[in-house]
Design a protein that fits this description.
By secondary structure, this protein is mainly β. It is built from one helix and ten strands; from the N terminus they run E-E-E-E-H-E-E-E-E-E-E.
């Protein structure tokens, strides 16, 4: 899983093993069209926890991640309260958004991890598109991952505010992970 972003010198891919995602150094950006498509709103979520298990056979690799639904921040307190409130995410009732993925397959220059997102009390299929996965600082160093996903909010029963809030949400994840274990023993989910 090695394709570097433009201008980045390719680095060694993370070896097989389990990597714990670092919430303090991981960013999750959510972009959504608003105002009948006239503008794009950029917000962020905080990662609660997660892990990536890389297997020698990519088909046996897995990803698990959990974000705090109530952590949405766009720089506009009124908008943030609206997004996390009962009419959209209802973060008080559904405080967590999770992704669970199993297997990785090549897709052009990157990788795709098929899985499922659970949000607002409902689960829907989702694909995590991995465009960069690299190891920094040798085998004991940290791993960096860059991934994107597109979610249809109506798949989770979030249907209010049509026109004011777009139907699809584009996620951009820049994740940093520390090795929890490395070696050929990782052949499936942790």
């Amino acid at each position: 899983m090695t394709e570097s972003a433009p201008g980045v010198v390719p680095a060694e891919a993370p070896p097989p093993g389990t990597y714990a995602l670092d919430p303090e150094h991981t960013t999750i950006r959510a972009d959504v069209k608003a105002m009948f498509g006239l503008m794009t709103v950029h917000g962020t979520f905080r990662l609660r926890a997660g892990q990536v298990s890389i297997a020698a056979d990519p088909g046996a690799s897995s990803v698990e991640a959990s974000i705090e639904a109530g952590s949405y921040a766009s720089g506009n307190a009124t908008r943030d309260a609206d997004v996390t409130g009962a009419s959209l995410l209802d973060a008080r009732t559904y405080p967590e958004i999770t992704f669970t993925g199993q297997g990785a397959r090549r897709d052009g220059d990157g990788w795709v991890v098929p899985g499922s997102v659970t949000a607002h009390g409902a689960a829907a299929p989702a694909e995590l598109r991995l465009s960069d996965a690299r190891l920094e600082g040798g085998e004991a160093g940290q791993a960096r991952f860059r991934a994107t996903a597109r979610l249809d909010r109506t798949s989770f029963g979030v249907t209010k505010k049509k026109g004011m809030v777009g139907r699809t949400v584009d996620l951009v994840i820049e994740a940093v992970a520390q090795p929890a274990s490395t070696g050929p023993a990782s052949t499936g989910p942790a």
